[in-house]
Write a structure and sequence with these properties.
Blueprint lengths: L8 H17 L10 H21 L4 H27 L8 H21 L1 H4 L1
Helix pairs in contact: 1-2, 1-4, 2-3, 3-4
Length: about 120
């Protein structure tokens, strides 16, 4: 039973990812502080925030779907940033970049499923 946005699996997963991204960014070079790090922080934080905001507008299917679609866009942006981070060798832990990319890819699929089937979840 979904009683609040806190009950949504996509919210929980995106919130956890945003916490992990913030920790990861602490190891990025200071030259990226206002570039890649800032973009990643904003994109990762945006996803759970937009899920929460979209949930508040869930009575309007179109509004809710728009928020969830935007979350999918932010998730795709994170995949791009993680690929760039991997290319620049900012992520030191072996396999961690691929793990994060896979988690954001799964999140995109879940967000799309939620957007397309919201009536069944209510």
């Amino acid at each position: 039973m979904i009683k609040s946005f806190l009950d949504l699996e996509v919210y929980k997963e995106s919130f956890q990812l945003s916490i992990e991204i913030e920790e990861l960014l602490k190891s990025y070079p200071s030259s990226e502080k206002f570039l890649l790090s800032d973009q990643m922080k904003r994109a990762s934080r945006s996803i759970p925030a937009q899920i929460a905001e979209g949930y508040a507008r869930r009575e309007s299917i179109k509004d809710f779907q728009r928020y969830i679609r935007d979350c999918t866009g932010e998730s795709n942006e994170m995949i791009n940033h993680l690929l760039l981070s991997k290319h620049k060798r900012y992520i030191k832990k072996l396999g961690y970049a691929y793990e994060l990319i896979e988690r954001y890819t799964r999140l995109c699929k879940k967000l799309t499923n939620l957007k397309n089937n919201w009536q069944n979840f209510r």
